[in-house]
Amino acid sequence: MQNKQGETDKSHYPKHIAIIMDGNGRWAQQRHLPRVMGHPAGVKAVKRVVKFCAEQDIQVLTLFAFSSENWRRPKEEVSKLMGLFMGTMQKEVDRLDKNNIRLRFIGERADFSEKIQQKMVESEQQTEKNTGLTLVIAANYGGHRDLTLAMRSLAQQVKDGAIMPEEIDETMIASALSIPDLPDPDLFIRTGGEKRISNFLLWQLAYTEFHFTNKLWPDFDAQTMQDAIGDFLTRERRFGRTSEQVQSMTN
Ligand code: IPE
Ligand code: IPE
Ligand code: MG
User: Fold this and answer.
1) Is 129 part of any domain?
2) Catalytic positions, please?
């Protein structure tokens, strides 16, 4: 869609895009490489997508980098992923900072090494005043765990007498989850062909538009992202209303 000045009209673009970056292992195996070789190739795709989102004025990009279930993988693969996570933070945070990108992490940090935890805190502090794209990395994240911790904190507040059980509402639950201050994802993308959520942002995806692609994550580029946004732009988001109601609201 172009406006009168011939520029692309981005007013309907998703504000928050959340991606399950899947298919690194299969990408490597297709090339007769060990599956762990797919992960560094996946980091290159991350850089392309971050650049795209920053240039297109997307507000928030959330990337599922490591799930709370991924610890079940072979030890060598987990250790390669941890090394890559640390190395990528060391190499890329200055560049993100220069590009006015704010970096945040969601997920349970205590299971990571001290060194990784420290680098996560430093990276967040270094970029916290940036006002461009917010890049959220979900690391050791699980939607069930996020909800469990939220329930625990609300239960504690009830126990302390700070709130009554009947006061608990959707807003309060949302506030107790990760990233309460960011809008819910408008567009969810999963690469690699699987059609499941794999314990990603369960609460926050309630009204998100889903886009699945068979493309493996290391092959993901600006064009694939543009295609996903194009698909998103064809959707009518009704939030429970009828199509006629939605149309009369937008006209
Ligand atoms: C996603 O790619 C990366 C992580 C889960 C860390 P996979 O490693 O799951 O790749 P496939 O699905 O096995 O091909
Ligand atoms: C989901 O991918 C998690 C990440 C991309 C980090 P998986 O490859 O772990 O998902 P499943 O096991 O196929 O559901
Ligand atoms: Mg996978």
Assistant:
1) yes
2) 22, 70
Q: How confident is the model at residue 4 (pLDDT cuts 50, 70, 90)?
A: low
pLDDT in tens, 172-195: 999 999 999 999 999 999 999 999
Number of domain units in the chain: 1
Q: Which one of 67, 85, 188 would you pick to mutate in the ligand 2 pocket, going by the greatest count of ligand atoms within 8 A of its CB?
A: 67
Residue 89 CA to residue 119 CA, distance in Å, equals 7
Q: Report yes or no on 49 lying in a domain.
A: yes
Q: What is the pTM of this model?
A: 0.96
State the CATH number of the domain containing residue 229. Answer: 3.40.1180.10
What is the spatial distance between Cα 33 and Cα 53, in angstroms, rounded to a whole number?
Answer: 30
Cα–Cα distance measured from residue 206 to residue 214, given in angstroms and rounded to the nearest whole number: 23
